[in-house]
Every structure is written in C-alpha cells, then in structure tokens.
C-alpha cells in the first residue's frame, strides 16, 4: 500500500492537469508563414506560454498584463526577432518568414487556476529555390496561357484549403466532397486539384494579375476539451502580360493603301505618256 498511493497520486494528477504530450506534425515551406493555433476562443484568466526546443519564446496572460515574444521572453536570444506574432485574444502563435533552422518542437502550455493543458507541434521546414524566398512565388504568363499555382502539397483529409485573390475568397476545399469555386470574375476558368489543392487558371487575362494566397488549415484534437489547429499561408504573385499585336495599325494600313494607289496612278500616267509619244 505504501507504493500504491504515490502511483495513484501521479495518475490522478496527470488526469487532473489534462497534460497531452502527443505531437502534431506541421510541414511548411521555407519563407512561408505558419500559425500554431491554441484552439482557445478567448483567453480569460489563464496564462499561455510557448516554448521552442525548451526555450520560452512567447507568453500572454488573460488580462493582458504581461505579454512577451522572442527576445523579450528568452533573455535576448534573437533567433525569432520580429518574426513572431501573438494573438492577444486566443494566444495563437504565428511564425513569419520561417526558415529551416526554425524546425523543431514547439510546446504550447495553457495554465488556469485548476488545470494545465499542453500540446507539442513538431514543425518541419523544407528549403525552397531562390524564386520562392520570402514566401512569395513568382508566376509570369501571357494572355491566353495556362497558369498553375502549385502548392507542392498532398492534401490530408483534415485539411481545409482557402484560396484568395487580392484578399477576396476565390475557392476552397473542405474535408468533405465539396469544392467551391467563384463563378464570377474568372467565368469558370478555374480548376482545383483535390489531391494537391493546386489552382489552375485557364485562358488567362491581364486582369488576373495580382496576389493569390492559399491558407491551409489542419485540425487535430486528442483532447476533447482543447482543439489544436495549425495553419500556414502560401503567397503567389501572378503577372499576366498582354499579347502584342504583330499586325499593323489601321493608320499604317491606310498609309500603305494610299501609297499603292499613288504608285498605280503614277504607273498608269507613265504608260499613257509613252503611248502618246509613240
């Protein structure tokens, strides 16, 4: 019995605290932004802390009396300087312009007066080519050409994909069978790949030029009291140039016609003059 009570105490303590150490895998491309969501709608009185490989990188209290990120939280370490954003309502953490050295374990800790909830995000950052630095992928095309905005992803059944064009929702794929595409501006010129989420634009026009953003959200919950969601954003800058008319302008055509008529008249005059001389 002496050995039983400490074991029972530990089991009860674990259940009471609600500690959940399951890892949520998150994959993101270098230069993109990723948001690690707490699943909390509004932080009331608790404290939310974020750790990266054991070092505290962000913290916020429910009454907003204490907020810190990156260098303010970890004694001057500048790994994340100006690249962390903390949502003041939910405590969700956004990492901007992420790079490969940011790969690792991110631990979320939510403390209240009666419980502690923890979650670990295992973030993997993949390197990209030079044209994809700073999270912006450049795409150029001529009017009429086929444009593919390739996500480089394989969609999970829990993923929700939202495409935006200049801030306006353009298309989405949810976990169910439905796919929605805007029927207006693009007049049925959009194609959406269900497996990858890649967006294709057929018969492109110069008015299709602009910024396209893809938001990928994945939900994972092993704790019914706490839903953890991770999301990441990909940005594409599309430029569609007009096709130059290789033909002649109407003024040039008119000028050529006048020149031909004048030459014809001159030729006729010369022929008549020769006949008179004979």
Summed up, what is this model?
With 278 residues, the chain is of the alpha+beta class. The protein has helices at 4-17, 250-277, and strands at 19-29, 33-37, 47-52, 55-61, 67-69, 84-86, 93-95, 104-111, 116-126, 136-142, 147-149, 159-165, 168-173, 179-181, 190-192, 199-201, 210-223, 226-241. The strands form 3 sheets. Strands 2, 6, 7, 10, 12, 13, 14, 17 and 18 form a 9-stranded mixed sheet that branches.
Outline the secondary-structure elements.
Layout: H1 4-17, E1 19-29, E2 33-37, E3 47-52, E4 55-61, E5 67-69, E6 84-86, E7 93-95, E8 104-111, E9 116-126, E10 136-142, E11 147-149, E12 159-165, E13 168-173, E14 179-181, E15 190-192, E16 199-201, E17 210-223, E18 226-241, H2 250-277
Parallel strand pairs: 1-9, 10-18
Antiparallel strand pairs: 2-7, 2-18, 3-4, 3-8, 4-5, 6-7, 8-9, 11-16, 12-13, 12-17, 13-14, 15-16, 17-18
